[in-house]
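Render this sequence as a predicted structure.
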Amino acid sequence: MNTSTDPIIPEPSSPCEKLPTRRERRRAETRERLVDCALRLFSERGFTATTIEDITNAADVGKGTFFNYFPSKEHVLASFAQFQMGKIQKFVTQAVHSTQPAERVLYELAVELTKEYDRCPTLLQNILLAFFSGESTRRLMADTFEKGRVSLAELMKDRQHRGEIRDDFTPTELALQYQRALFGTMVIWSLAPTRPLSDCLKEMWSVLWSGMRAQKPSRRDA
């Protein structure tokens, strides 16, 4: 399996792209700081034990500032999930125009989506706890996965057209199996993280890719 770490080179930004204003940059920085501090505290103390005041103290902002960005602690995690979905969309946009093989592209995406959890298994545990704590957050998680699946299906379709991925399944079906394998690997690893997640990921991908790749015709069929 090709697991080279050379990254997909992103497309350069358009010179006509509108730059954010100073106010927009400050808001984005504050939001990012709140999310970073919240995730760190969730990992250290647990989701339930972490208060909004803990988060704002760590981020060095007033408690009222938190509610300018998030209605609740659960929505901080929702923001993180949406950030992950944004990674998928950006990655797919780049990969569709890339000449790199599908095996490498899909593996690199799996690495990109799991690198935060590899450093901290409890982060994934607390994210799951939060998302399943209520119906609204559960629906939000399901919606995030569904949107991510749409982007993944676009990539699967592109690589089917290139003849790299089997075409007896729809792109959406393949995207679903990719999500199941990746998420299942992460959850099982988080329960007993005795090995690096990256090692488990390589093993999972080796098996999954053997079932996803386009099968070359045998000599008998040729």
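Summary. The two ends are 26 Å apart (CA to CA). Residues 135-161 form the longest helix (27 residues).
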